[in-house]
Amino acid sequence: DNPQGTMVEQSDGAGQFTSVVLRPKVTLAPGADIEKALALHHAAHEKCFIARSVNFPISLAPEISIGLST
């Protein structure tokens, strides 16, 4: 993953995240269905207890590729 977050800092030193983008890199086996992998990733995010527990949006930008056959 290559996450990126946006944080706001107050003048008194307090702060909080206002958004996060997760960029996981997933390599599938040759012949795998990339669209199905994206759908499964989206479904998992919808049920993620961490993403559902924070008070800022978490976006996803997965990078899914097909690996080389060994």
Major sheet details: 3 strands, mixed
Helix content range of the residues, please?
Answer: 25-40%
Number of self-contained structural domains: 1
Output the CATH class name.
Alpha Beta
The averaged pLDDT comes out at: 91
First-to-last CA distance: 24 Å
- Number of E-state strands: 5
Strands ordered across the widest β-sheet = 1-2-4
The CATH architecture category equals 2-Layer Sandwich
Q: Unreliable segments (pLDDT under 50, ≥5 consecutive)?
A: none
Q: Element order, helices and strands?
A: EEEHHEE
Number of helices: 2
Structural class: alpha/beta
What Rg is obtained from the alpha carbons, in whole angstroms?
16 Å
What is the CATH superfamily classification?
K homology (KH) domain
What is the 3D form? elongated
CATH topology: GMP Synthetase, Chain A, domain 3
Q: Strand percentage, roughly?
A: 35-45%
